[in-house]
Amino acid sequence: MSAAASRKVTALRGSGVTLVEAADEFLGTHRAANPNTHRAYTSAIDRTIAHIGGGSRRLSEVADAEIGDALASLWGGCAPATWNRNRAAVSSWLAWCSTKKRWAAPSVPAEAERRRENVDHTKSVAKTKLERLLSRRDIPLRDKTLYRMLYESAARAAEILSLNVQDLENRKAPLTSKGGDTEWVY
Description:
Strand order of the largest sheet: 1-2
Order of helices and strands: HHHHHHHHEE
Number of domains: 2
Structural class: mainly alpha
Number of helices: 8
Largest sheet: 2 strands, antiparallel
């Protein structure tokens, strides 16, 4: 028996899995159980798949550089937090494919590294400073009311400015917050 005949050829496990099949299986796991996580992961992964050639392409055929190019093309000009969020979603998916499922999968290349996010170190205004501001006679009552409501409610300025006097009921008013939820300010 020759050496060539005695070698055993084994196919990579999952080498025939398509990008969409891999994505669907990953999105069905506990990692994407939270609805917000599922939405964000689905968006990032689906856009990446579309950019690298569509869902019928095999996962094992995709190169690391293609993943990096897709990330750079889709989110390269975005804010660091957006880049990091989408990069993490794609990275988590690909890592799951290669470690949990042992599929031949690309990875996020080193040049597509996380970006440093700017941290906001703004502190809130001290209550004594606000009281001093509200006691000044040269500031109109409307502005004082706006400052007080913003400070006490922690609502966004656009939400407070959208209120009408007619909205007030027993010293409270409904606001439509970011995301469409109705909240009350007092």
